[in-house]
Every structure is written in C-alpha cells, then in structure tokens.
Specification:
Length: about 950
C-alpha cells in the first residue's frame, strides 16, 4: 500500500534516535504518561507504533468497523467515525444551522467559510463531554462532488460545477473544521464521496465513465486541494462504480489520494457499501474477498451493518485465515485510524488543546451572528429593475408557500429557532406584515358516502377516517411541489399527513424520513372527481408492486391503501382559495414579496434525483397572480439548485435566490431586501433554460457532451459566476505581475458593496479540445462608494496544465492564452493575452504499448475494469464502435498490430483517417472464458500504414481492449 511511506520513514528515524540517545521508551517522570502513546511530546508516528504494538490481533480487527469499541485494559474509549456536518452538526439535536453547502459556496468567500467550518468544529467538540449516541470527531464533510448535473438529488450538498472553486471552498471549510494545525486536530473531516458521484438513480450499480482527461482535470481536482492542504483527513468511497469498478475497491483510494499528502489518511466506506460488493454489485462472491479487496484498495474503516461489527470482523478474520490478507495489511489500516485519533488529542492529557470545549459553544451568540452573515452573503440577486432595495417606510406583504416556514434537509441539524421570511420583514419594519401561504385549503368528500376525510386534533394527530363532520378536521392545506406531487397539512393541528405502515396520520411537522411518506397526488378523473394516490418515496422501490390509493373507509372507519379499482372517488371542495387570499394580502401594499421554492425532502434528495427543473405550476401561477395585483413584486426563490424559470424571470421586477439558508434565513433576506446588506452572492452553477440543454444524467464526459460552463456552447438562463449588486463596478486594465495578474476595481455607485472578481483563462490553440473558459482565481472584495482597490489574482504557469493522454502526464503547451477578468463567466470586463513557452505535444508513438483508454475521441464504447484490482479497459457497446488516436506518426511504417483483448469473440480493425477510412489490418479474436482473461491478438498491417495519420480502432463484437501497439 502507498501513502504510509512517510510514516514508516519517520518511525525509523525516531526509533534510531530513541535507541541512540533516549532509550526504547518515552521519557518518564513521576507524573508522566504510563505508555508512550499517551505522551504528547512524542511524534505521532512513534505514538501510533507504540499503541499498535500493545493491541492484540482481535483488538486491531475490531477497530476496522465504524463503531470502534473501547479497549478498557489500555484506558481507551470507544470511537466512532461519521458525524454529519455539512452545514452544521447534524442528527444530535439543536445546533447552529448554517446555509446549505450550495448556499455557503454562493458566497465565494473562503474566509467566511473557514469561520463557519471553525464554528461547526467547535460545536462538534461541544458534545464531547456528554458523548451522545451518534457523536464523534470524525466528521463526514464537506461534500466535494462536482455539480456537473443540476438534476442530481444531492445538489444541495455540493459546492459548484467547477473544480477550482470547489477545491478552494472545501479547503476553507476543512481548515476551519481541523483548526488549521494538522498535528492537533479540532475535528477530522472526511471528503465525500470519492469519486464521480453525481447521480442517485441506480447509484449502487451505475458506472461513472471517466476518460483520463475528465478524471485528471475535473473529478480528481475537486478532492486534491483539501487533502494536499491538510484540510481533510481522508475520503469516503462512494456507492457508484467508476469505469466498471465499485469505488469501495477503487485502487485510487491508495495509489492516488494518499499520494497527495505525506500524512496518514483515514478512508471510510459509505454506509452499507461493503455489502453491495457481494449484493447488488455482485462483484465478489464472499464478504471475505470483498472486505479484503477494499482494505487493500485503501479503505481503513467499514461502515456496515449499523452498530453491529460482527459481519465485518468475521470477514476480515476469514480473509486472514485464507491468505487473502496479511497481518501487515491490518496494521496498515489500523495505523491510519490511530494516527487520526492521536492527532485528535484523544490520548493527550485533558484531551489535547480542544479537550476543554463544552456545550456552551453550541448555538452561541457568535454562531448565530455568523449564521446570519453567511445567509446574507449567500443571497444572489438575479434580476432588479430598480425595485430593490425597498424603502423601510413602505408597507409590504409577504406571501407564498415558503413565506412562513423554514425547511431542513436530510443532513441538517435541528433548528434551534426559525426566522422565516415573513418574520424577517416584520422585524425589519418593526411592525406585523400581511401574509398568506397562497395555498388552497380543501375538503375531500367521498362521493359514494357523502362523508368527509377527517384528521385528528391534538399534537399527535390521529388516523384519517371518514366522518359526517365538516369542521377543521376535514380541511387540508395543499402544497404543490411539482411533478404532480402535493403534501396535505391538516388544519386541525398544523401537521402533515403521512403513511405510517398501516394507515394515514396527521402527525409530522414537515415531510421527513428516509422514505418520505407525506407525498400524494390528486388525480382528476373524467367525471370531475379525484383519486388520492399515495406517492411516498418507497412506492418507487421494486418491492412496492403497484400504485395505491386512499379509501374507502374500512370496518374501523379509518382509511387505508387500496388498488386503483377500489379507490374512493372524492369531490374536492375548495374551502379557501390560496391565490385569491395572497392577492388580497398584497393589494394596496407598497411591495409584494413572494417566496416560492422547494421542499428539501421531496424535490430531489439522497436516493432521488430531480424529475424536472421547473417551479411547481401552482407556485408559478401564484407569482403571476400576485404580479398582476401588485406591480412592485419581488420574488424569492428558495431552493437548492438551478431552476428553469422560463418567462417568469423576465416578468417580475426583482428576483432573488437563496438556498435553504438555516435559522437566520428571514433576517438575511430582509437585510438584502431593505439594503442593510448589498447582495454579492454569485451562482456556482450554470442555470440552464431547459432540461433539453442537458444530456443523460449518467453521461459523465463533460468534454464530449459539452457540460458545465467550461464546455457548454448554448445560451444559459444565468451563467456561472453570475450575480447582481445594488451598486456598480468599473474594472481597469488587466496587468501581469509576478505569479499572477492585478486589476483596479472601482465602486462607481452610491452604496458600499462587494464585487467577486473572477479570473478565467482560455487556451487558443492546443492539440486537445480545451475549455471555452476555466476559472483560475477569484477574490471577493468590499468597496465603499468611489473607492478603488487593486485586486491581485494568482496565476502561475503550472496552473495552465492539462492532461496529455499521449504520454499520461500533465503538460503546459506552447500557446497563446486569453486571460480574462470579470463579474461572471459571461461578463468579462478586461482581458489580455499571455504567450507561454511550454511543450509541443509530439505526434503519438503507437509503437509503444498504448492503453486503449487514452483515446482522443470515441463512439459506442464503454470504459470498464481491466481487472478487479486495477486498470481500465475499453468495451465495445455497439456494432462498429471506434476509438480515435489523433496525430500518430507511423514512420517507419509499422507492419504489425498487437492488442490485448478479452471477453466475447470479435475483431479489431485498424483504419486510417476515419472510422470508415483505409483498412490497414484486422485482428481476429476467438473470445475468452472471462472478461478478465486477456489474450494477445495480432494482425499484419498494409503498406498504407505510414506517415502522420489519425488512427482509428474499429471494434466488432462484445469484446474488451486494454492495450495495443503498432510495430
């Protein structure tokens, strides 16, 4: 295994020093530590080696599971990997809830994000005195998966579609979490989810296909900066496969990730992922094989079977006894774990420098202030015709389905309090404001019985039943979340109706849970009646056989699930017209504020990608109705991803976007609406006009499929880096300085404001397709009216490198580069050119053994695992699949072709100039018994194979090609 050479080398030096001068044990004093591993004066490596030597084989193996037991004889407490901390400490009760990660990223403010990370780290430490169930100092955050597809269900968890921005922000957050001293960790952050994890559909069986340039230039670059800066202490392997191999056994965990730092890393699996290797992925036949392979690939801690370590420890012991693992493999992984625990101060007197932090830090005044600042800085102004900022002397109404509530997501902490948008505006104005959620209140009457669907009173609610009553218990507020999905909130107690496994109860404060069971669809029938279909997330599971509906009432009077043919038909009585109520609230007011958006448990989340990118139809209709009633309408879109707003974004005077921004959302929005803060948030993703602008969510080749701002050639709704301000900025000339560029930026408006100065580059000429633009530096700078500041942006020659597939190395080409600076990727204010004398990539030399994956272009192929241990091969997926190897020098002319192939029988043609060009040779393959059993096939080449040509390999048959040569 790689990645521990530094620790072993240091250990040797320390050991020799001890033998030569200090002896074989730590210095001892009357009040000194009992064992060297408890002596903070010793290097980490020495302490780890000492503790390892004291553990029995069974004790070592026990530490490989997420729930590491105590070792009482050594005075070691239990340890757990995996406290969630994406935007605050989660699942442990009331903690400070900061904006979602996508919101934090929209600040483009690494200094702020580092402060947020530090606050979250403090609060994680705040639980250490009580150590509640689920607590630990190994934090599973941040998520650095690139947001290349805005339909990803977990978009809220990531930072950006851009690797540079993601790397800089994750480094900032991670540095805050660690405390900034890698030898004395406040917490131990783990980057999620390695690697190329950006779809939820079939996430445990789909393969993200990464050609080398996408792998090196894009996906790895999101993970490398934080590891390289010691701002993270490991990675979590993701559920998906990459190039046909499950990430739980991805050798890059060891070979690549550990090469980015000399320090020990603690790599963990995602929950239940080890079991997938023998389950849904069917990659190994036994758990012993699977766990051994994961350990050898670079996994140190197995997250499986919840709190039960039995299956993991049994598999590891079996692997040892059968020779699949050696004791040194166990020591290697356990050494990584213990190194982190030592650095966390666990074995130091008093728990180290952070051992005294207690619960007083949780939701402290300082953290509440920071949460408000973060939510304010994260707000993005998308449109403004001069309506904003609002006058505090004016009147306002705040309406919309998100105007009077704050929603939390799956990985959120529990809100200690909630300042809603309506609350925030009221506090700003110092007086109550009119409002309405703008949703219909309905009653459902069974047309066969004339009786009403009725919910229970009281906080706990009750099972839905049919009654003759027509009071509050029969009334439900209908919230439309798009795609035909609605939620029903009982007017009787303000709780949402959901399925509990046996019936329907109004008992939830908001839709929640892994299977979100508070979802319904009102299906209108041809006779004007409605069926109420239950649409909880679990109905999409394979074990849920068919659509189910409500009613009619059973013998006990309660409503249960039935098939469509037996479903109750309901008349839908609109008791209160939500749109009419909202319109009445905004009439005559100086301003109407409409808050629309998403419900994080419904509109895409873990295990569920978004089904569409638009606002819910009734929300869009509400905005239009309010706009017609009050021309001064401000729309706030509160959700976790880019939205296709259609014509709406042109129809309203002002438009703001915010993520679900935590406990201080309302105050932050009011600060922006009324000008106490000048918005400077910037989008970290391209906002597309339509889903038709995007290929399949499973297409990971951003180069070929023109994904993200780097390659997208269409016109977006809003470009990457976009955001408006209440003031204006002028850019001066872009000047080159040592190691970068500088530009003078002047605030030409009347308000103090922040500008996010963004530097992009474009390589004009290259052997390879280059991005249209690439972010290389940025700076958020604050300027008073009339003030000018010179902004320096770092750019070094190595920053211009891209991955050369002809030689499998980074290369800076001799070329002219456009260097551009501006307010967004589409709003360039100054530019210059840079001539770089680097390398000229030579023509390909295919006489050398060439990996098939290092092609320049392709059609009809899939990237697959060459073996279960390592390597990538190419598999033909369509008749006439081809690979292009551009600019190949065939001199002297080769006379033979050789290739390593496996799988089904087929042929490999060598063609020149195009996939249908001159046929230079054909190799025939009879097939092998296994897709991993490779054979060498050969064929002679014609005299036409000479000169400087594009070489194409055309594949026929379901075969795999790993390497080839022309000699």
């Amino acid at each position: 295994m790689k990645g521990t050479t530094g620790r072993r080398r240091t250990t040797l030096v320390v050991t020799l020093a001890l033998i030569a001068g200090l002896g074989a044990t730590a210095p001892t004093h009357a009040d000194g530590p009992a064992h060297p591993f408890r002596d903070p004066r010793l290097p980490v490596d020495r302490r780890v080696e000492d503790l390892l030597s004291r553990l029995t084989p069974d004790e070592k193996i026990s530490l490989l599971h997420q729930y590491e037991p105590a070792v009482p004889r050594l005075g070691i407490q239990a340890f757990r990997t995996g406290t969630e901390a994406l935007h605050g400490v989660a699942w442990l009760g009331r903690t400070t809830v900061f904006p979602q990660a996508i919101g934090l990223a929209s600040t483009w403010d690494p200094a702020l994000i580092r402060q947020v990370g530090s606050a979250v780290g403090d609060e994680a430490r705040g639980f250490q005195q009580e150590r509640p169930a689920g607590w630990g100092l190994n934090l599973w955050a941040p998520v650095v998966n690139l947001l290349r597809d805005p339909r990803w269900g977990r978009n809220e968890e990531g930072y950006s579609e851009d690797p540079y921005l993601t790397g800089s922000l994750s480094t900032a957050y991670g540095t805050g979490l660690t405390g900034g001293d890698p030898d004395h960790l406040k917490t131990a952050p783990t980057l999620k989810h390695f690697l190329a994890d950006n779809n939820e559909v079939r996430r445990d069986t789909t393969s993200s296909e990464l050609r080398p340039r996408v792998l090196k230039e894009y996906d790895e670059q999101a993970f490398k900066p934080a590891i390289e800066a010691d701002a993270a202490t490991g990675v979590m392997s993701s559920y998906n496969l990459v190039n046909g191999r499950p990430n739980t056994v991805n050798p890059a965990l060891d070979d690549t990730v550990r090469s980015w730092t000399s320090r020990d890393l603690l790599n963990v699996t995602d929950a239940f992922a080890p079991g997938n290797l023998t389950g849904s992925q069917k990659y190994y036949g036994t758990r012993a094989e699977a766990d051994a392979a994961a350990l050898k690939a670079g996994i140190d801690s197995f997250t499986d079977n919840d709190t039960d370590p039995g299956p993991t420890t049994a598999a590891i012991k079996s692997a040892l006894s059968t020779g699949l693992l050696k004791e040194k493999d166990i020591d290697e992984a356990v050494g990584h774990i213990l190194a982190i625990r030592v650095r966390l101060g666990e074995f130091d007197p008093g728990g180290g420098p952070y051992g005294g932090i207690d619960a007083s830090v949780i939701n402290s005044t300082a953290h509440r202030t920071l949460a408000r600042r973060a939510a304010t800085e994260a707000t993005v102004l998308l449109r403004n015709d001069g309506t904003l900022p609002l006058r505090k002397s004016g009147s306002a109404a705040v309406v919309g389905p998100l105007s009077g509530t704050l929603y939390t997501d799956w990985y959120s902490g529990t809100l200690p309090y909630a300042v809603t948008p309506k609350d925030g505006v009221a506090a700003e104005l110092g007086a109550p404001v009119a409002g309405s959620e703008g949703v219909d209140r309905i009653a459902l009457k069974d047309t066969a019985t004339g009786r009403y669907v009725t919910a229970g009173n009281g906080d706990a609610g009750a099972a839905l039943r049919e009654t003759a009553d027509s009071g509050a218990g029969t009334r439900f507020d209908v919230f439309d979340w798009g795609s035909g999905i609605v939620t029903l909130r009982s007017a009787a107690n303000g709780k949402y109706v959901g399925y509990n496994g046996s019936g329907f109860v109004n008992d939830q404060a908001q839709p929640n849970g892994w299977f979100v069971q508070q979802q319904f669809a009102l299906e209108r029938q041809s006779d004007g009646t409605y069926l109420l279909r239950y649409a909880g997330y679990e109905t999409g599971e394979s074990w849920w056989t068919s659509p189910v509906y409500l009613g009619p009432a059973g013998t006990d009077g309660t409503l249960g699930l039935v098939g469509k043919d037996k479903a109750a038909h309901y008349a839908k009585d609109v008791v209160r017209d939500g749109t009419a109520e909202a319109v009445a609230a905004v009439k005559g007011k100086d301003t109407a504020v409409v808050v629309v958006g998403s419900m994080p448990a419904i509109n895409g989340r873990e295990a569920h990608d978004r089904t569409d990118m638009a606002l819910a139809p009734s929300q869009e209709a509400l905005v239009r109705a309010v706009r017609a009633a009050n021309p001064r309408t401000v729309v706030i879109v509160e959700n976790s991803y880019p939205t296709t707003l259609g014509a709406l974004q042109k129809e309203v005077p002002a438009l703001l976007w915010t993520s679900h921004a935590g406990q201080e959302t309302g105050h932050a929005l009011a600060d922006v609406l009324y000008g106490d803060a000048n918005p400077a948030g910037r989008l970290t993703q391209t906002w597309y006009r339509s889903e038709s602008d995007l290929p399949s969510i499973l297409d990971y080749d951003i180069i070929k499929s023109d994904r993200t701002y780097q390659y997208f050639e269409g016109k977006p709704l809003y470009p990457f880096g976009y955001g408006l301000s209440y003031t204006s900025f002028r850019y001066g000339e872009l000047k080159r300085v040592p190691d970068g560029y500088e530009v003078a930026v002047t605030n030409t408006g009347r308000r103090t404001g922040d500008e996010v100065v963004q530097l992009y580059v474009h390589q004009r000429t290259s052997r390879d397709q280059q991005p249209l633009k690439q972010l290389k530096a940025y700076s958020r700078v604050s300027l008073k009216p009339g003030e000018t500041k010179t902004v320096r942006l770092a750019l070094r020659t190595p920053d211009l490198a891209h991955w050369d597939v002809t030689r499998s190395k980074w290369v800076v080409e001799t070329a002219a580069y456009d260097v551009m600076v501006g307010s967004s990727s589409a709003d360039i204010r100054a530019r210059t050119s840079l001539k770089v004398r680097g390398e000229i990539i030579p023509p390909r030399d295919l006489s050398r053994t060439t990996r098939a994956e290092n092609f320049d272009d392709y059609r009809g192929i899939s990237l697959v695992d060459e073996s279960k241990a390592d390597g990538t091969a190419v598999r033909a997926t369509a008749e006439g699949s081809w690979l292009k190897f551009a600019d190949t020098l065939l001199e002297p002319g080769p006379d033979g072709f050789a290739a390593r192939v496996a799988g089904a029988a087929g042929t490999v043609e060598v063609r020149l100039g195009s996939p249908t060009g001159t046929l230079a040779g054909t190799a025939h393959f009879e097939g092998t018994s296994s897709p991993y059993a490779y054979e060498t096939v050969k064929a002679p080449l014609t005299a036409a194979a000479k000169g400087r040509r594009d070489v194409y390999l055309v594949l026929h048959g379901d075969l795999r090609l790993s390497t080839f040569s022309l000699r």
